[in-house]
Specification:
Distance between the termini of chain A: 36 Å
Shape of chain A: globular
Number of strands of chain A: 38
Radius of gyration of chain A: 26 Å
CATH architecture of chain A: Beta Barrel
Radius of gyration of chain B: 19 Å
Helix content of chain A: under 10%
Strand order of the largest sheet of chain B: 3-2-1-27
Oligomer: heterodimer
Strand content of chain A: over 45%
Number of strands of chain B: 27
Number of helices of chain B: 1
CATH topology of chain A: Maltoporin, Chain A
CATH superfamily of chain A: TonB-dependent receptor, beta-barrel domain
Amino acid sequence: MRRFLCIALLLTAFPAVRAAAQRDSAAYALDIERVEIAARRPLARIGVQRSVVDSAVLYETVSTSLAEALASGTTLFIKSYGRATMATASFRGTAPSHTQVTWNGMRVNSPMLGQVDFSLIPSYFVDDAEVFHGASSVGITGGGLGGAVALATAPVDERGWGVRYVQGIGSFSTFDEFLRVTYGGRRWSSSTRVLYGSSENDFEYRNYARKDFRLDADGNVIGSYYPLERNRNGAFDDLHLMQELYFDGGSAGRFSLAAWYTDSHRGLAMLDTDRNRERSKKNTQDERTLRATAGWERLRGALRLAARAGYTYTDMRYLQLADAEGLGNYFAHIDSRSYVHTLFGRAEAAWCPGERWSLTADLAVYQHDVASGDHTVVSEQTGEYTVRSYHEARFEMSGFAAVKWRPVPRLGLALNLRGELYGRELSPVMPALFVDWQLSRRGGVVWKASAARNFRYPTLNDLYFQPGGNPDLRPEKGWTWDTGIEWSVRRAKTSYELSATFFESRIDDWILWVNSGTKLGIFTPMNVRRVRSCGAEANARADVRPHADWRLLFDGHFAWTRSVNRGDPFGPNDRSVGRQLVYIPEFSGAFTARLSWRSWTASWKWCWYSRRFTMSSNDPGVLGSVAPYLMNDVSLEKVFDRRRVRISLKGCVNNLFNEDYVSVQSRPMARRNYAVYVGITPKFGRR
Amino acid sequence: MDYGPADQELLDCSQRGVFITCEGNFVSGNASLSFYDPARRQVENEVFLRANGMKLGDVAQSMAVRGGRGYVVVNNSGVVYVIDTDTFEVTGLIEGVVSPRFVHFTNDTTAYVTDLYDPRITVVDTRTNRIRDRIGTNGHKSTEQMVQWGDEVFVNCWSYDDTILVVDAANDRLADSIRVGPQPSSLTVDRYGKLWTVTDGRTEGIQAALYRIDAATRRIERVFSFEPGDHPSGLTANGARDTIYFINRSVWRMPVTAESLPEEPFLRHTNTIFYEVGVDPATSEVYVADAVDYVQHGTVYRFTPRGAPVDTIRVGITPGGFCFKPKNH
């Protein structure tokens, strides 16, 4: 039994490879049922506030981005400008840069901006998505003042060749193509994924932000109306490629390789207040990113060792183009280019000396090299692009150690310590303390609590951006605690999970980009704000199979978040102190309900955001807030399971009730729209 | 839910007053227009939205008044709205300008519009609000503020430029140019025909400077250098045009006959971000805009010409321009 407990602990301690171990290794899969039972309250999860994005949510449709999956499958707040435009995620009333994101153990937050654009992560490219709230993020990486999102790829389950092709066709000339080819052997397995999505994205909307005018011959207004118009300059095409290789070397350990390339070309849609013609003005954003990781891990007795290396390359180009004649002969007024290289290395060790103890440690290093600047300005003297640019390198290191102890079966205690180095600066030690107590073994009721101190150091743009970078910035300092109850019941045909958590966090020296005080549009980051957030999160899941042909799944989330500015006022007229931060909804909720009958599945996704203020003084007017909205998406899927092929047909109706709405000021969203998906999976001898 | 058309009101403010253009936040479409009645000390905010049932747009840059019409320049919406200065209702609009900055009237039927993303100055027939001509600028990429002395309109080229253009207003043609320091950000003219411009000091190794230029000879007469790290802006003149004001963290003023920069500010900054200064041409009262944190209602302070506080006015987001509506237009 001790051995199984240790395996369970070690596997849960390293989520990126856990699935691999469970799926492919005969040794690891030996007592999988027993592993699951032991893993119900594993040492590695003592007190951890963690949620897992359901695979049904991840694989909802081929056009689903991780931003949409997180919005409907977690309590994270997603600030989205529309499909294929910037989408950021924030926890518990913090900023997007306070959400740390890892992919196969490698942090992927931009070293320039500190945040991640989740619209660039197709959910079909993620096999495991775990969300760590508040203090629990310290176990993943540092700087997650709000939390952390851990993404991972995993080997395929099945032996032999596998192919899956999905095509999606939707409103606004939207096309998505997905192909995955897999091979699973005794030692080797491979997966190749390709996804190409494109859209004119020219949806129609009623523009309430501006009117069109009827004019007489002298140019005088004689009438006006709110026009029905199309989203302009919002077209995009995104290509994603991913190759994974896994090798089981037996006693030498398991080896993995994953490489993910993204080539994205996106138009940034014109504001609803813009009266320029489409051919007069155009903003575009192009990005190419390569992420690659190579890993090794070995489990021997009570000791597990792992190592990982990685590399990230990104080049981004933002172009602002104009042609006053409206002929499309554009001239670039802003040509902002950024080049980022990041080298990554990580070593991990976990030791389980007994049933009650575990010790884990890891060390991660990053070497960033960033060049960023506007290439429209050429020096008359040198002829070079020297204005408004910077080129900086930075070394970062993050060390982590944890001890977990379960003195009695009902009680678990854990202490995490993390320290970080950035450049020549050392951040103070980040401690995190966790406790859980099983209130009722029979009823499956567990009480959890955690508390942590955390720090986030400034990004390279914060320090060096030209113009405006501030090299004197201090790290942001966070303190957070939470407590909650979880209840779960699992029976043969039903399972239910309920959880409720209360949290509080304080962030000092919050870095905010503020205008430097002149009309030149120059912003400078400053440590200006103290923020206190408190609130509650609730989750409910149910899986009911009342009959062999029927299955009902429900996954619901609700969040109440008060995130308030407690800083010193900017001046005598500052009315932002004591007010909710901009774009943080006080209330939000989402659920997904899925009903299956034989080969048919109907699903209903619902989400709601309360009013979000866009002025720090919380003005509820049209110019100071974004109206609340409800969104309903439904779909119906039919699977045809034939001897040699499995075919799925799915139809979706998004924004079912044709609601006019915006999620971000002046960025209209699509009204009711439709999509159909065809999935083809040949069986290659498997039946 | 409650996303939809904005309520529309009938407003009537026929008295003289001050328009305050509030830029809002770039790419947020939350610019607004406020109207302040100095006699009653009353302000009406968001008058454009309330009178027209639609947003003003993205970045309200400036405003000018001519013949009972207000010309509100909305930079990142590519439009100049022509409004009735009493009811604030739109009576016409000037389109075909990509990124308009300022409007200047050379006579009763002609307006010039400068542009950040169009190298040319647009010539508009104010009777029809239609574009009549474009004035080429001989390789300059953008144009900014305009002042007139006689038949010549002087235009500063601010964005990565160092030039004051001279335009022959009689023929709508570029006549000459004057080279100053890098990035002249604002421009005014005094009662003696002297142009005043201030550079922003954002070019590495080159300090900001205030230039006095004779409009007739186009010769730079005097250069007043600022300290390193100073970034002056918001240059404007009083009603008598014998005193200029500008912002350099605090608000400063100096007589146009002075031979050195002032040593004491007109209004010292204390936890305030002074964003713009305007002087009422009729009363020489001084209005100073404080943007607070740029994402909430800004504040405008009103002072007598001697610097005594008169009123504090809460307006829209990032108040960045003052336009004075005369008594009888």
